[in-house]
Amino acid sequence: MARAKFDVIIFGASSFVGAILTRYIAAQYGYDKDLKWAIAGRSERKLQQVRGTLVEALGAQAGDVDILLADANNPEALAELCSRTRVIVSTVGPYALFGEPLVKACVDAGIDYCDLTGEPQWIKRMLDKYESKAKETGARIVHCCGFDSIPSDMGVWHMQQLAKEKFGYPLNKIEMRVKAAKGGMSGGTVASMIQLTKEVMANPSIKKELANPYSMCPPDHGFRVKQPNVTRATFDKASGSWSMPFIMAAINTRVVHRTNALLDKAYGERFEYDEAMLTGRGSKGKRMAKMMTFGLGAFLVGAALKPTRAILEKFVLPKPGQGPSKKEQETGYFDIRFYGYADGNKEVVLKTKVTGDKDPGYGFTGKMLGEAAVCLAKDYHNNGKKRWAKGGIWTPGSIFGEVFVQRLKENANMGFEDLTEEKQAVTDMEDAKLEAQS
């Protein structure tokens, strides 16, 4: 096969996230320099508009950005895209409705692919249908390269590397807590959530699958530990704060467990992991946890019932193509904490945080997804020949290592920090105060 013209093709570049991703790639990597890239989708008019917005980053050169036309349901056009690139990054969702043909095309062509899906039922279908073929062709498929699930998956990976350096062994339990986050919701995310709800209501077996924390692990994973799961307002001992269920835990926890399995149980056979969102301390935090848990439950019930779902879709929820404003994206952020426990120890032995400086689901997802695509295209290729990871369906934490973390730090301003010493300093200060008082 002739050498591909492009390193990366952004498929769905005119979607809400696709446009953000395209602007990030343009600003970070320029055009026709070290990274060769193009934009693709079904509407030439919309892609022309996206290209027009790149002038600020690229100047007049924006007019040279290649536009490639392909419909998500046209196998021949998708195969043509695959013949022209090393990597395709897709933002065309809901993936359960539109994502499979492109995954199949990439697997058949033996090229790499990444996306930002958070749809566990669809990922399970892709695993069942295409993983064996991907291993044969060498295609490396990496789902969940957005806010779900890079902060969770790479955050756990980062903490386990620290544990091995400090203790010589991995932690057997990690708790992830969203300390703070500010951002909006797009119509694409809502459409994915509604699609999952519709599938669950139409096929009750999916509900059983979603209740299995190891549903995305290989069939021979061998994990038997009953996983913790925050389902109500709960006092969180490690943070000293009240907490509530985190809606993205359903996908993030499964990705982390699949990472453990694909890394030959590097976190251990009895590894435990759960996620929650912190609501604050004291009676105010408790009230907030209870109110928000009730509100989340009411929303999920409303989405499950056809009449209320129709009302939500028509009058309340954002439509596909809608999302947070540029100002909301720029002023958004997230601060996620990880608490690690060693085997047999009920006290926290490691504490880390992962942070981002933009709206988590959109402004910062564009950064993470972009760096995942570039990592596949540049860091793990050598003259067009793949090295290191073999073909298959991977998770971010199982395929990307320290080089990816460094990319996120240096290019995306994503923070990965060890707070253990800070925690110990605070503890020592509190002990000194108690001693002085006595």
Q: What does this 3D model show about the protein?
A:
The protein is an alpha/beta fold and 438 residues long. It has two domains: 6-146 and 362-412, 3-Layer(aba) Sandwich (Rossmann fold); 150-361 and 415-427. 49% of the residues lie in helices and 18% in strands. It has helices at residues 16-29, 44-53, 55-58, 75-82, 95-98, 100-109, 120-137, 150-167, 187-202, 204-210, 249-262, 282-304, 306-316, 326-331, 363-379, 396-399, 402-412, 420-437; strands spanning 6-11, 37-41, 67-69, 85-90, 112-115, 140-142, 173-182, 234-236, 241-244, 272-280, 333-341, 350-356, 381-382, 385-386, 392-394, 415-418. The strands form three sheets. The chain has a seven-stranded parallel sheet with strand order 3-2-1-4-5-6-15, sandwiched between helices. The protein has a seven-stranded mixed sheet with strand order 8-9-10-7-11-12-16, sandwiched between helices. Helix 1 (16-29) packs across helix 15 (363-379).
